[in-house]
């Protein structure tokens, strides 16, 4: 059992899921409420990682974050090493990779809100910020939880992007999925089995949690 | 039942912070604390055919010096790309001397440290119960009708893949068998394809064919004159911040003890004369 790889994966997934919650919320809010006709363009960009092979994303990340890439060069002049092959590099690449998994549940939640509540809030003199915190956020809890859990689970299972831009460094970029790949190649099937089964169980638990929330088997919101 | 708004807000606030955010923040802090460890280990990128030999080399070295050696296995061509993009390796053990030479030419590796540590050998390998009679048939066993998949390493970037294609071309078999190829990303994956039975036969590294998981299979050593020499070389990466440790490990690799270990895993450390078929 490679606990180091598992902890690294969990740490990566948690970091990405928390950051995405913060970053995706304003984006989803804007996409849900804007009347701009061109918003389909932004929606398409956000959804791109759903259809792009991870190798495409990983390839661009390697080119951009590497020591010869624009971002990598800038990073190297600041920190003395390129952005590729670092944990931070993985976080940045994963943010892009999991973006649609955070944005889409939020948009769905925001769009399904009863607009009359929002109108009532503003006619009663609440600022948009106050309306967001007091009306939109509490009513969108299931969407928030889905966004967090789905981006967590998706990042946990990430492989192609990490393979391209990670460099397979133990404790830094060797995540569970890379570790399993390594073990299979080394013909260490029992080691691969243990890690794979663990990942399977975790993924199932996470998905069961999401579905139980969206189907309201239990609600994180106290009953009134 | 009505509650006033401020009570409800307080409850919501308490819910949000108490039950969800606080444990999440704690968990994140713990994980961040666990992760950062000392980075003084020596990082070695090793060609996949060194999968077993390098483990032994590093263990002997660590026992002597207490210096931790972290080994990352992969295809030499991929390491070449990664090092060009700034991968933080200290030493690069390639399965082919051309990649270290290209890195030196690009100013990314140190010419004086270039050292040929071994010559790799290509073998034809089939699982134990395949009755292909490799010892007698040699490469022509590939024409057996029961063979539908032949595993070779990707000749685009894996040295053993290039050697396999060259040997098949020289033996005049390439055009007859090329439609049956399955390509491993590196020589380890190629070996895994045939060891797991996904392919019935494969052209793999001798060092993997004699490893515990594969040593009871059928194998036939491909004559060294059928393909360009698999001259394997190591080089120090210029960006390494661990020069002293890397130099010390290089010295160890040049020692008689290392040569014995490499020989045990099927690597010859002296140049092979043409036509020789035994390791």
- What is the highest CATH level, the class of the largest domain in chain B? Alpha Beta
Q: Radius of gyration of chain A, rounded?
A: 20 Å
Rounded to the nearest angstrom, the radius of gyration of chain B is: 25 Å
Give the H and E element order of chain A.
HHHHHHHHHHH
Task: Give your account of this protein's structure.
- The complex is a heterodimer of chains A (224) and B (279).
- Chain A starts with a helix and ends in a 10-residue tail after the last helix.
- The longest helix of chain A is centred in the N-terminal third of the chain and has 31 residues, at 3-33.
- In chain A, helix 1 packs across helix 8 (141-156), helix 3 (54-65) runs parallel beside helix 9 (160-166) and helix 8 packs antiparallel against helix 11 (189-214).
- Chain A has 224 residues and is mainly alpha-helical.
- Chain A has helices spanning 3-33, 39-51, 54-65, 70-79, 87-111, 115-123, 128-139, 141-156, 160-166, 176-185, 189-214.
- Chain A is built from 11 helices and no strands.
- Chain B is α/β, with parallel strands linked by helices.
- Chain B has 2 domains: 42-119 and 230-264, D-Maltodextrin-Binding Protein, domain 2; 122-226, Periplasmic binding protein-like II (D-Maltodextrin-Binding Protein, domain 2), CATH 3.40.190.
- Helices cover 41% and strands 21% of the residues of chain B.
- Chain B has helices at residues 5-35, 53-65, 76-84, 98-105, 134-137, 159-170, 174-177, 187-195, 206-209, 243-253, 256-264; strands spanning 42-47, 69-74, 91-94, 109-120, 122-126, 150-153, 181-184, 201-205, 218-221, 230-237.
- In chain B, strands 2-1-3-10-4 form a 5-stranded mixed β-sheet.
- In chain B, helix 2 (53-65) links the parallel strand 1 (42-47) and strand 2.
- In chain B, helix 2 (53-65) runs antiparallel to helix 11 (256-264).
- Chain B is globular.
- Residues 1-21, 30-39 and 272-279 of chain B have low confidence and may be disordered.
- The chains are: A mainly alpha (224), B alpha/beta (279).
- The A-B interface holds A 7-8, 10-11, 14-15, 18, 62-63, 65-69, 72, 76, 81-82, 84-85, 87, 134, 138, 167-171, 182, 184-187, 220, 222 and B 9, 11-12, 15, 20, 24, 27-28, 31-32, 34-35, 37, 43, 48, 51, 70, 72-74, 82, 84-88, 186, 188-189, 191-192, 195, 211, 213-214, 239.
């Amino acid at each position: 059992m490679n606990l180091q790889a598992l902890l690294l994966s969990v740490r990566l997934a948690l970091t990405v899921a928390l950051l995405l919650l913060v970053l995706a919320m304003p984006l989803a809010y804007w996409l849900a409420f804007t009347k701009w006709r061109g918003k389909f363009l932004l929606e398409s960009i956000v959804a791109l990682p759903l259809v792009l092979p991870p190798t495409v994303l990983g390839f661009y990340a390697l080119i951009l974050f590497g020591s010869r890439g624009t971002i990598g060069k800038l990073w190297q002049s600041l920190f003395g090493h390129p952005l590729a092959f670092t944990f931070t590099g993985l976080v940045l690449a994963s943010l892009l990779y999991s973006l649609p998994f955070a944005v889409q549940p939020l948009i769905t939640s925001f769009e399904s809100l009863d607009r009359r509540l929002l109108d009532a809030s503003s006619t009663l003199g609440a600022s948009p910020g106050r309306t967001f915190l007091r009306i939109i956020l509490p009513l969108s809890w299931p969407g928030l939880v889905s966004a967090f859990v789905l981006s967590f689970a998706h990042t946990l299972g990430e492989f192609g992007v990490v393979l391209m831009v990670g460099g397979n460094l133990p404790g830094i970029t060797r995540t569970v999925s890379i570790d399993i790949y390594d073990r299979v190649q080394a013909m260490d099937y029992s080691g691969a089995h243990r890690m794979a089964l663990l990942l399977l169980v975790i993924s199932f638990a996470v998905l069961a949690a999401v579905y139980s929330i969206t189907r309201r088997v239990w609600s994180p919101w106290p009953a009134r | 039942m009505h509650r006033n708004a401020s009570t409800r807000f307080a409850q919501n606030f308490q819910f949000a912070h108490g039950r969800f955010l606080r444990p999440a923040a704690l968990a994140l802090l713990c994980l961040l604390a666990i992760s950062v460890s000392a980075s003084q280990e020596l990082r070695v990128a090793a060609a996949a055919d060194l999968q077993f030999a390098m483990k032994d080399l590093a263990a002997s070295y660590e026992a002597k010096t207490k210096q931790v050696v972290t080994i990352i296995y992969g295809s030499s061509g991929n390491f070449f790309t990664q090092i060009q993009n700034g991968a933080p390796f200290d030493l690069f053990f390639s399965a082919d001397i051309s990649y270290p030479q290209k890195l030196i030419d690009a100013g990314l590796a140190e010419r004086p440290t270039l050292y040929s540590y071994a010559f790799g050998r290509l073998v034809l390998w089939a699982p134990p119960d395949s009755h292909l009679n490799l010892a007698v048939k040699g490469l022509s066993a590939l024409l057996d009708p029961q063979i539908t998949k032949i595993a070779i390493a990707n000749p685009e970037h894996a040295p053993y893949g290039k050697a396999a294609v060259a040997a098949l071309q020289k033996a005049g078999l390439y055009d007859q068998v090329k439609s049956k190829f399955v390509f491993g990303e590196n020589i380890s994956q190629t070996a895994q394809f045939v060891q797991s039975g996904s392919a019935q036969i494969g052209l793999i590294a001798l060092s993997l064919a004699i490893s515990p998981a594969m040593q009871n299979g059928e194998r036939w050593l491909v004559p060294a004159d059928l393909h360009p020499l698999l001259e394997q070389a190591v080089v120090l990466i210029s960006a390494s911040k661990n020069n002293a440790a890397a130099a010390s490990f290089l010295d160890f690799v040049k020692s008689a003890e290392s040569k014995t270990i490499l020989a045990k895993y099927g690597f010859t450390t002296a140049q092979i004369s043409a036509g020789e078929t035994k390791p």
